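Issue: ligand-bound run for iron/sulfur cluster - logging full I/O for the record.

Environment: standard queue, default settings, no custom constraints.

Inputs:
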Amino acid sequence: MYDKYSKKATEFIDDQEIRDTIAWAEENKGNLELINRIIDKTDELKGLSHREAALLLCCEDEHALKRIYEQATKIKQEFYGNRIVMFAPLYLSNYCVNGCTYCPYHAKNKHIPRKQLSQEEIRREVIALQDMGHKRLALETGEDPVNCPIEYVLESIKTIYSIKHKNGAIRRVNVNIAATTVENYRKLKEAGIGTYILFQETYNKEQYELLHPTGPKHNYDYHTEAMDRAMEGGIDDVGCGVLFGLNLYKYDFVGLLMHAEHLEAVHGVGPHTISVPRLRNADDIDASEFKNGISDELFQKIVAILRIAVPYTGLIVSTRESQKSREMVIKYGVSQISGGSRTSVGGYAEEEEEDSSQFEVSDRRTLDQVVNWLLRLGYIPSFCTACYRLGRTGDRFMSLVKQGEIKNCCLPNALMTLKEYAEDYASEDTYRLAIEMIKKEAQDIPNEQVRQTVLEHLHDMDGGMRDFRF
Ligand code: SF4
Ligand code: SF4
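Outputs:
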C-alpha cells in the first residue's frame, strides 16, 4: 500500500501507485480545464503533487505546453535568477564489485584499467581543478569495500579540503558514493561533505534488479532507502536522480517525485538537488541497446515540469549533455552545471584515456569556454559555496528558499565568486565579459546596505583579498 510516511522502499515508492498515476494521467490528458488549473496553481510556488506533475507530463496540447514552459522560465527566474552554479566531478576510484549493465565500471569489464588515486595523485587532480577555477566538487567512486573503503573516501575528503594552491580552494565537496550505513553517513557528515548524491537509476524494482544483476547494489530496498539512512546519519542535503534511458521515463519521473514527497514527509526536507542524466555510450556500453532513450524535446519537457513541480530543488545537468541541450534546459530550470569535466580516474592532471571514462562527454569545452558562453547568454556563472559553510543546510536552507530570502545571498555571492574567477583564472575575453556582468548586476542588488558591502568586497578583491560571502 502506498504510504509516503513509510520507511519501506516498496511502500513510499509503491509500484501500484505509480501505475495508477500514469493510467489516471493518460485518461485525463485531454482535460484541459484541469491541466490549466494545475498550471495556474504553480504561481503559488508551492510545487505539484506527483499526480499533478504526471498529468502535465502526459499533456500534448500545444497551448498548455507553451504555458508550462513559460511557468518554468518564470519560476526559474524567481528562485534562481540568471545564476548558474558551477561544479566538476572528481573520480577517485573505478574499482567496483557491482554488475550495473549500463556502466563500464561494472565488475566483469576486464578491459578497463582499474585505478584508485593515491593521496598524492588526488593532490595533483585538485591542484589541476583549482587552477581551472573550480571551488565545488562532486566525488565519484565505484563500490568496492576492499579497494575503496569508507576510510579512503574520508581521508580523500580531508586531503581535498587541505589543498590551497595559489588562490585556489575547494570549498564544498559533494559525495556520490554507493548506498551505505547510517554510521558511514555520519562519518561523511563529520568530514564536512556538502550534498550526498545517489542516483536511483530506476524506481521500477523489477527493472532495477535486472539492470543490477550482481553485487550489493542489486538490493533495491537498501538502495532506495539510502537517503533515509543518510538523513538519519545527519546529512540533511541529499541529491536524487534517475538515469533516463534505462526504464520507461514516465515511471521514473513519477517515482522521483514520490521519493521527493517521501523525504519531505518523513524528514521535513525534500531533496536539495535532482540530477537528470541521460544514458550515454561508454567502453563496453552501447546506449542504443537500451530501448528507452528520450528525445531532446522530451528531455526539455521533463526539466520544465520538474522545475515547476519542485521549485525549491536545484536541478543539475552534467557534460553528458551537449552545449545545445544544456542551453535549452538552463532556460527551463537547470540551476547547476559541470564544466571542463573529466569522467575518468586521474583525468585532470593527465591526458584522459578515452576508454576509462565512465561515460562519453558531449560538452568537451574547457571551464573558461563554458563560463564565457554563459556570460554571453546573459547568465552569471557562480562559484558560490556559502550556504553549507555558514550552516544553511537542510530545513534551515529550505525555509530561506521558501520565504524567497535565499536569493538575497545568491546574487552577491555569485558576483563575488565570479570576480574571484575573473581575477585568478579567466582568459582575457572572459575577464572582460565577467567584469561587465559584475558591474551591471551589482547595481541591481536590491538592498542598499548589501549592495554597498558587495561593492566594498569587490574593491578589496582588487587588492588581493578573497573568499567573501553572505
Ligand atoms: Fe559501479 Fe556505480 Fe558503475 Fe554501478 S554505476 S558499476 S555501482 S560505478
Ligand atoms: Fe547556493 Fe547558497 Fe550560494 Fe545561493 S547562497 S548559490 S543557495 S550556496
